[in-house]
Amino acid sequence: MTKDGAIEDGALDRRTVVAHGLRMNVVERGGDGPDVLLLHGFPQSSRSWMPVADRLAAHAHIVVPDLRGAGATDAPRGGYDSETVSRDVLGLLDELGIERAVLVAHDWSALVGFDLCLAHPERFSGYIAIGVPAPYIRMTPRLAGALMAAMPHLWFQWVIATPGFGPWLLSHGRQRFAHWLLESFAVHPMDADDIAAHIAALREPARARAASQLYRHLILPGFVKIMAGRYRGRVLCTRTLVLFGGDDGLIPRGALTIPEEDAPHTRVQFVPGGAHFVVDDQPEQTARVIAQFIDELAENDS
Question: What integer is the mean pLDDT of 206-232?
């Protein structure tokens, strides 16, 4: 482990697991305690979780995969929708012999996380969604105004989703657009080596195409489902913590209210000094919150 808490590559337990027909790169840490599955966001990979995984290794068995199209996992031409990615995740748990896990998901994978907990609550003892609100938004005039104000800041989503142009912009030339995505939504500068690794992956045409399909088939449709109220009536029974960086300007605070009838065991918490990439901004505090949540789950089960 380095002096700042990050783990050295030689300390990682990496392996390839074939799950749901997909060759997935998986990192494991620790061994004792509950199984904890960490899912990354865009445009990142399992690498973004490493400082947090190292801090949690004494508390649990940590599993960190590269998801479909990211990192060193296969990037097939299709399958970038929530249902398929959910099957990838469940297949990984099955291959690892994990019947029930604590799920922690950041950014777009948090959308998948809600779908997983709603469809397969028996597989997850608890869930931490990071950087994405619970899918039970009730539209009000105030919230509508806040969302309209936020829209200009989300222009990049439609750009990435555009066939042809999105992948080209992510992968070609000096990749200034990809650099901007990683550098513009953080309170503290992201590690330069991490940025370089994430951006290098996008130079592969298959991974740039996967990124575009992810926005086109999962991220944008996912938020449309939330805004259209399609989750109402589906009660989230999994014990859930919705976690945000205290300085995350992408999420209107009015979108964070969670009606008890929709999610009776869900609460919202903020990490001071973090923004959208709170896992990178504040790895020590993020790890502390996750460890406390694991302890709470153990107390509730005892």
Answer: 94
Rounded Cα distance between 239 and 261, Å, is 14
Query: Tell me: the pLDDT tens digits for 47-79?
Result: 999 999 999 999 899 999 999 999 999 999 999
Please work out, in degrees rounded to the nearest 5, the angle formed at the alpha carbon of residue 237 by the alpha carbons of 232 and 243. Answer: 85
Give mean pLDDT, residues 206-235.
94
SS3 per residue for the chain:
CCCCCCCCHHHCEEEEEEECCEEEEEEEEECCCCEEEEECCCCCCHHHHHHHHHHHCCCCEEEEECCCCCCCCCCCCCCCCHHHHHHHHHHHHHHCCCCCEEEEEECHHHHHHHHHHHHCHHHEEEEEEECCCCCCCCCCHHHHHHHHHHHHHHHHHHHHHCCCHHHHHHHCCCCHHHHHHHHCCCCCCCCHHHHHHHHHHHCCHHHHHHHHHHHHHHHHHHHHHHHCCCCCCCCCCCCEEEEEECCCCCCCHHHHCCCCCCCCCEEEEEECCCCCCHHHHCHHHHHHHHHHHHHHHHHHHC
Tokens 């829209």 belong to 151
- Distances in whole angstroms, Cα of residue 56 to Cα of each of 66, 113, 116, 294: 18, 20, 23, 10
Q: Tell me the C-alpha distance between 164 and 162, whole Å.
A: 6
Nearest to 206, CA basis, from 158, 167, 179, 232 = 167
- The whole-number pLDDT of residue 142 equals 61
